[in-house]
## 1
Amino acid sequence: MKGHAPSEQDSIDKWEVQLRKGCLELAILAALWEGKLYGLEILRRLESDSDLIVSEGTVYPLLSRLKVLGLVRSEWVESDAGHPRKYYALTAAGKHRSREMAAMWSRFSSSMSRLLAPLTKEK
Amino acid sequence: MPDNAQQKIEAYLGRLRQLLRGMNSEDANEIVEELRSHLAEKAAANGQITAAGVDAALTLLGTPEELATQYTTDALLARAEVSRSPLRILESLFRWASLSVAGFLVLLTSIVGYFLGGALMLCAVLKTIHPQSGGLWAFPNGADTEFSLRLGFGTPPPGGRDLLGWWIVPVGLIVGCGLVILTTRLALWCFRQYRQSLVLPRR
């Protein structure tokens, strides 16, 4: 904790956490777009393809939530590693939802970029 | 050290399983198995599980308490959103109440909301069976006036006045139904706010 204005840093951190969490659902659905993956693969995909710093403890509960909502389905597959892995795949509803969310996201992000352009220009 | 490492994993998963006991056991077991599989792979370096690897993997997952709270609220919220029946909502709220004070307050509010809504609808229906004594009544109680939603059992109190008459049927049904819907919306909204507020362990 820095001596000056810890509360400001705190509220920026919180805002960032909320921002990441808001995107996480779409990020997971997007990771599954090209085919089934198991939990750790999803985590690795999120790490390598994005700078969404994701806490692992968040992704697994979110996956089971997406399953209850019918957006993904899961199956256990035996592996060479000696333990079975739980694979997730998008359902038809999940694909539909991902497309919708992606379109919404694109619109949203381009209007935000336009709006933020003056703030992010180099000094 | 693999034995020690294995013990750590089992202790962690055992604690998590214990915390998930409110869920149906098939779901809880599946969660534990999935995390066991995750830890086995995450904690292994060159195919061998090491104690340091286990420690690191467990830290990244968060404590069993944090994980259980997320699983429970996520599952409850998803199920409540899918069904939206007051019984399902109340069931979820009961579990939420066991997790946090906020949940307890929302549970109390929801019980009042559902109870009042249900009583209004019941009163509207029973008015058709007990036209003389059912309905919303006002009667004197000392210097005050007391209001009472009567289902029509027994005789109305002396000096009482039926305020709405037959209007209780449409009013009771509409207001009661609206109250139930409003309570459901409010409970789900609060639940979502709570889920958003769960702060996660950061790396």
## 2
Amino acid sequence: MNTQFWLIQAFNGISYGALLFLVGAGLSLIFGVMRIVNLAHGSYFLLGGYVALTVIWTTGSWLLALPLAALSIGIVGLLMERIFLRPLGFDPLRQVLLTVGFAFLFQQAALDLWSGNNFDITPPEQLTKSIVVGGLYLPLYRIFMIGTALAIGIALWLIMEKTKMGAAVRATVDDAQMARGCGIDTSRISMLIFSLGAFLAALGGVIGGAFLGIYPGLDFEMLPLAFAVVIIGGMGSLGGAAIGALLVGLADNFGKALFPEISYFTLYAPMALILAVKPTGLFGRE
Amino acid sequence: MSRQMSSARVNVLLVVVALAIVAIIVPHSNSFVILLATRALAFSILVMSLDILLGYTGLASLGQAAYLGVGAYLTAILATRYQIGLGWDFWAVVVLGMLLGAALAAFFGLLAIRATGVYFLMITLALGQCVWGLAYRWNSLTGGDNGINLRSRPKFGIDLADEVTFFYLVLACFAVSLAMMYTLVRSPFGRSLTGIRERELRMQILGYNTWLHKYIAFIIAGAFGGLSGVLWAHTAGIVSPENVVLTTSVDALLMAVLGGAGTLIGGVIGAIIVFGLREYLSTLVPWWQYVLGAVYVLTIFYLPTGLMGIPERIRQWRATGASKDRAKELASAPT
């Protein structure tokens, strides 16, 4: 275990964290704004990957698949929020169960539409090469992942901090009732945030599909990881999601490399401890 | 009051009769039905234990499969490595499984009980995932992804390898668990749990240590989860991370809600329906999971009190219908 090992593992961890950020940021915002534990979030990730596959098979363009998949799943999220979650009102248990019901429906739909086979999303050739930095071979694709997450993170941060819309979202996270009282249309904000979360998760699915693969069951594999990001980072906080994603990405990578037998335990045990001490997560607002 | 007493007695009588009918009919049907009923009954002990938390205490746990998991893994590891629990000592394993489930719950409860609502959901999810992570990765102990195969069932005077005998054993364990949990929820302790569900602050003001009440309920639920796991290991013949995974916890939660939270027996009905759909419908049609998903979504929308809530709803509907009729009569009556 020399420095090279540590550097490579750290790089892999960070790039995996970048992917987790895409999934976790949306989940965190959804929780912050709507207080919904969305168990269908992993399904958006998986469906995003499948839609991208279809786009690639029909048009051959990976670049086109990226926005198309994310947008179409964003619309799915929007419809789900409007038609089903909105009329349900506030009851955490019923909301959770409803999203699970949908996760099962999505699972079956994916199985019917795309069969149970394992697929890989092949990125364009330019991205499959590696570059050498200081004797380390770094796959360009992972650098691309980090870049994408950074770009999206910065864009989200700018929207949240600098626009009126973002201010309204933050107000809703802090105190939805008060925000409504001030004339903020929290229902519209919920719709937008839910759909944005689905959009980001699907984007993650397209990007992650290249090295995780796309297969049935991936939805419920990603879901707890996304929750770990949200919980460690704090619910409803974008910066928290970024740090949470980074920590989970690193913990997952080093855990698997150093102590494979208890690697998931090293991931979820801190998560439970953090929740026990500070239920809103490390960077969450009270 | 007396009417309530008698209706409770009628309910108990109904359940006893239903169990007797099950005990008589199932062994005479085909092996598929016997297997299905055994599975549903073994699993429904877990669902009922969850119902103590969900329906009576108001704690929605998303990690209840962990307790089934430790019970099942304990049984499998003892049986395959040490040949323990394959004779009369099966009952020792049952007790051990319950103790292990209770011990795990006692530990997890320390972390989880303080949280409420959505946060309780999240922390139990995280704790459940810890157990899953160990089951999935700790190859030397749990066999990792492949799990552990149990080669034989216990034999003590009776041979549990026989499906019908085993069905009776599970049915008996189920009936005893149901009776114990029913006694529990109707005891003063159970009543104070319901009080906590309705309004925790008021119970605190009345001088109840609500944390301790919830903690004890959590441990009891863990113990029954462990029992369910011991039975499940021998029912399925294989224990794998699949038993501890998030979706199993979710299944238990859905079964409880589908049948009707806060009714105990509703959990069994939910379990039978879900297992029935999953195992029977899946042999008939490829799109069975749509039906399952639709059942969940529809239940949550139109039957928030679950299937057990239907009689009550009909009664209410009739009552409002009757009062409407009377109002009409009064309105049309000549003054």
